[in-house]
Model the fold of this input.
Amino acid sequence: MWDAVAGTDDADRDVMGSAVGVSEDGGRSWAFHSLTAIAAPPEEIRTAFPTSGAGIVLRFGPHAGRILQPYCGWFRPGAAGDGPTGGEVVRSYVLCSDDHGETWHRGAPVGEDMDETTIVELSDERVLLNSRDHARGGHRRIAVSADGGASWEDLGVDQQFVDPGNNAQLAARFPDAPEGDPRAQELLFTNSRDLFARQRGTLSVSHDDGATWQEALIFEPGPLDYSVVQALEGGAVGILWEVEAREIRFARLEAEELPAA
Done:
């Protein structure tokens, strides 16, 4: 990624490509098609990658059924094939599909120093984007979309999210809650809640579509790298996280272990 060149030739080992894989036999075989030209057109982006964690499928509003996959790209002027330069700006965006992954298009980029990004659908049909800070200023950056990821309102640095510049995860607390149900406003977030070090793995919860957050518990007091949080059956929550690139740990939290609204 750091030394990748702009281009669309997936056979070029210096080009960082993107592809969608589909299996119709339970994973025994796969068919792939390239998305490199859509994800990182060389006239705009030197290189890009789908960010760690999970994409989402929108459930509410006019874009219900749309697949959104978060991306991070290195934007700068320059001709195809050019390598990294000092003028690059790291920005976030999503790839969208409205036909179950058959075809894809790229939404508008947002922000500066927007790095690995995680997204979640809010109860009012907007999408919340939460990004690590590429400049590592000690907090995270956020944006919202009112058109299903096609464009974004950059809300800048959110002081609620202390973070050293690490990947994190947003998720719906009750992903099957219908529109209008208060539970659809409840969100989960995991990250390393420290200004400078990748440590103190923390689960935070929001009961108001991400307007405010409260620390629910510390699931890893020591070092950690990336983490993922997802709702499980019966109101439980699962958290998966890396420890110093040497171990992966998992914790299941039952509903009664989490703070109520």
Remarks:
- Residues 166-261 form one domain.
- The longest helix spans residues 36-39.
